[in-house]
């Protein structure tokens, strides 16, 4: 059988299984392993021979799994995840929100703005959008509802703010993208800073305009807050500020690599939690258990994706796709917009990691062939995946917020509120596409 036919069949099968909500790790491992076996066993012009294909297929699976798991850059994944969990249990992430809430209390829509900034700060520690939405949703949404905020505004602001974990370093998506495309993860982290801040600014503008048009959606809390209260709240946020400096400042200044920054961040939260007495033994054990679970899940998915990439390369589908696109006569910008449209559509139905790992074997060769910078493209991909997190019908962050707040706020209510934030998301995406310097400016200045 023609290898390219097997490759197309494998991609379609994997996409179908993911749409049917089969776990992505099982999908990628099973489809790529079986299709690789068929490719080796059923060569063009010959009969199917299982024995002939078994040994090379096993070698492909074993070598890719071993090489990937032993990747040095991936060691930062459990370190950042552990640092995020411990920061949450030691209330470092909560202190960010409390500090901003106190300072923004008299601003119309101040609690929603504080929630967005808190999400940005949480993202700069944990690197996970879902974890950010889940944790900040428990803190921020009930607080806004208690002060009479509109349900759409309260829930949608946190769901949108949670997506910042995809762009603001340390981002798990950037780590996976950098590993698969062999680009610098440190430079990817820096490339995400300005787009992440632009997204945050866009969300804040959305809230301010929303409240300006509908003042009743965000009542201003009663009661005065003294200067001492503001000073105390700001001082309590110093551990979070230190972590941001370690991660962003340390990498940008050339003091740490991304992996070293992860190790230093984990050491800092452990030392702070122990000295301050905020980290109990039970919290530490729970953090390690959650870290092991998340890391194991991510690595299993990533190993499946690595095998899938090798299978796609084996079938030659990527080369054929590049040739077809090159001979199509389409302008570069048209091809780029087609890629963007594919990510937007897939993001409506698949989780971000599944979308990225399934498409990179096909999109990266096209982007390289057109002469685009892979770091810039990484920012575009992650921004598109961020949009997918809040795009109906399967906006993952929306369902996370719904699960956190329970029956008090329905899913459709959150989606109606999200539409306002999606407008600004599209504006930021267009700016990143039109002006690559927004993504590449900081990486170009790194030491």
Automatic annotation (TrEMBL):
<keyword id="KW-0813">Transport</keyword>
<feature type="transmembrane region" description="Helical">
    <location>
        <begin position="109"/>
        <end position="136"/>
    </location>
</feature>
<feature type="transmembrane region" description="Helical">
    <location>
        <begin position="156"/>
        <end position="176"/>
    </location>
</feature>
<keyword id="KW-1133">Transmembrane helix</keyword>
<feature type="transmembrane region" description="Helical">
    <location>
        <begin position="334"/>
        <end position="354"/>
    </location>
</feature>
<comment type="function">
    <text>Part of the tripartite ATP-independent periplasmic (TRAP) transport system.</text>
</comment>
<comment type="similarity">
    <text>Belongs to the TRAP transporter large permease family.</text>
</comment>
<feature type="transmembrane region" description="Helical">
    <location>
        <begin position="188"/>
        <end position="211"/>
    </location>
</feature>
<keyword id="KW-0812">Transmembrane</keyword>
<keyword id="KW-1003">Cell membrane</keyword>
<keyword id="KW-0997">Cell inner membrane</keyword>
<comment type="subunit">
    <text>The complex comprises the extracytoplasmic solute receptor protein and the two transmembrane proteins.</text>
</comment>
<feature type="transmembrane region" description="Helical">
    <location>
        <begin position="421"/>
        <end position="442"/>
    </location>
</feature>
<feature type="transmembrane region" description="Helical">
    <location>
        <begin position="374"/>
        <end position="400"/>
    </location>
</feature>
<feature type="transmembrane region" description="Helical">
    <location>
        <begin position="68"/>
        <end position="88"/>
    </location>
</feature>
<dbReference type="InterPro" id="IPR010656">
    <property type="entry name" value="DctM"/>
</dbReference>
<dbReference type="GO" id="GO:0005886">
    <property type="term" value="C:plasma membrane"/>
</dbReference>
<protein>
    <recommendedName>
        <fullName>TRAP transporter large permease protein</fullName>
    </recommendedName>
</protein>
<feature type="transmembrane region" description="Helical">
    <location>
        <begin position="261"/>
        <end position="279"/>
    </location>
</feature>
<feature type="transmembrane region" description="Helical">
    <location>
        <begin position="12"/>
        <end position="42"/>
    </location>
</feature>
<dbReference type="Pfam" id="PF06808">
    <property type="entry name" value="DctM"/>
</dbReference>
<feature type="domain" description="TRAP C4-dicarboxylate transport system permease DctM subunit">
    <location>
        <begin position="11"/>
        <end position="436"/>
    </location>
</feature>
<keyword id="KW-0472">Membrane</keyword>
<feature type="transmembrane region" description="Helical">
    <location>
        <begin position="299"/>
        <end position="322"/>
    </location>
</feature>
<dbReference type="InterPro" id="IPR004681">
    <property type="entry name" value="TRAP_DctM"/>
</dbReference>
<dbReference type="GO" id="GO:0022857">
    <property type="term" value="F:transmembrane transporter activity"/>
</dbReference>
């Amino acid at each position: 059988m023609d290898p390219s036919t097997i490759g197309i069949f494998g991609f379609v099968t994997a996409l179908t299984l993911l749409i049917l909500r089969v776990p992505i790790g099982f999908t990628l491992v099973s489809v790529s392993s079986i299709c690789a076996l068929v490719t080796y066993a059923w060569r063009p012009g010959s009969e199917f021979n299982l024995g002939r294909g078994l040994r090379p297929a096993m070698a492909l699976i074993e070598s890719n799994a071993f090489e990937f798991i032993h990747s040095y850059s991936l060691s930062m994944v459990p370190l950042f995840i552990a640092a995020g969990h411990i920061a949450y249990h030691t209330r470092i992430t909560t202190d960010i929100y409390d500090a901003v809430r106190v300072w923004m209390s008299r601003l119309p829509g101040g609690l929603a703005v504080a929630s967005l900034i808190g999400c940005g700060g949480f993202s700069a520690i944990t690197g996970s959008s879902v974890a950010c939405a889940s944790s900040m949703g428990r803190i921020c949404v009930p607080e806004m509802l208690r002060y009479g905020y509109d349900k759409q505004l309260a829930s949608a602001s946190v769901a949108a703010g949670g997506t910042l974990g995809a762009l603001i370093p340390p981002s798990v998506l950037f780590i996976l993208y950098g590993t698969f495309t062999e680009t610098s993860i440190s430079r990817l982290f820096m490339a995400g800073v300005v787009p992440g801040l632009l997204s945050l600014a866009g969300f804040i503008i959305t809230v301010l305009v929303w409240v300006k048009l509908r003042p009743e959606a965000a009542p201003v809390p009663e009661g005065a807050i003294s200067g001492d209260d503001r000073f105390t709240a700001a001082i309590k946020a110093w551990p979070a500020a230190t972590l941001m400096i370690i991660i962003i400042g340390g990498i940008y200044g050339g003091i740490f690599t991304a992996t070293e920054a992860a190790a230093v961040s984990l050491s800092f939260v452990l030392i702070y939690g122990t000295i301050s007495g905020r980290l109990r033994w039970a919290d530490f054990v729970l953090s390690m258990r959650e870290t092991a679970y998340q890391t194991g899940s991510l690595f299993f998915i990533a190993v499946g994706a690595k095998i899938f990439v090798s299978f796609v390369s084996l079938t030659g589908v990527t080369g054929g796709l590049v040739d077809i696109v090159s001979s199509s006569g389409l302008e570069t910008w048209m091809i780029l917009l087609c890629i963007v449209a594919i990510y937007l559509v897939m993001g409506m139905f698949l989780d971000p990691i599944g979308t990225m790992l399934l498409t990179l074997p096909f999109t990266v060769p096209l982007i390289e062939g057109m002469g685009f910078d892979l770091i810039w493209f990484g920012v575009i991909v992650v921004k598109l995946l961020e949009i997918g997190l809040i795009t109906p019908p399967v906006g993952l962050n929306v369902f996370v917020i719904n699960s956190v707040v329970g029956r008090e706020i329905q899913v459709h209510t959150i989606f109606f509120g999200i539409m306002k934030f999606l407008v600004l998301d599209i504006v930021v995406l267009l700016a990143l596409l039109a002006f690559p310097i927004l993504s590449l400016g900081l990486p170009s200045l790194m030491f």
